[in-house]
Amino acid sequence: RMAVPGAAMLRRSLWLCLCLCSCPARGLRIHEYLYFQVLSPGDIRYIFTATPAKDFGGVFNTRYDQIHLVPADPPEACGELNNGVFIQDQIALVERGGCSFLSKTRVVQEHGGRAVIIADNAYDNDSFYIEMIQDSSRRTADIPALFLLGRDGYMIRRSLEQHGLPWAVISIPVNVTSIPTYEMMQPPWTFW
């Protein structure tokens, strides 16, 4: 069979339409997905999909049109952050591993972060979302915690490194129902 230009985009659009038409509206989450868009740097100006933590963390009560997504240093964010001053009032990009999802969320919260996006440490993961659950410590966290595919996290960090930038500028959450399908800029390495 000959490939038809735009066939992949059409499949994605139809899938998104089915999701939007078949699930009840609950804020900005669709099938428990939450979306954000990278505004800068331009080479990764895509809409990314993340999943909220299942039983800990807060929710987005505010939409941030332009907020910094700051990669944590060290990336696993299991203790004191070397760049904690840059995470204050921003969103931290953290890597999975080393400690629990809740511990990472609490570290970012203690540094004044507004939310945390935890990317899988399997850089080739472009389709499997891990359910982030509370650990057995009985601690809590108040800021939103999201899980991001490993490939997406890797590509964001790689772009920042290539451009010598300390952070990306993002918009979060993004209501994908308000974006015409022809304007949906999805990462080319991920199938929606």
From TrEMBL:
Keywords: Glycoprotein, Secreted, Signal
UniProt keyword annotation of NAD present: no
Signal peptide: 1-27
GO cellular component, one term: extracellular region
Source taxon at top rank: Eukaryota
Membrane spanning residue stretches: none
Major place of residence: secreted
Subcellular localization, as worded in the UniProt entry: Secreted
Ranges for domain PA: 69-153
InterPro entries the UniProt entry points to: PA_dom_sf (IPR046450), PA_domain (IPR003137), PRADC1-like_PA (IPR037323)
Function text: Plays a role in the modulation of physical activity and adiposity.
Name assigned to this protein: Protease-associated domain-containing protein 1
Gene name, Swiss-Prot/TrEMBL: Pradc1
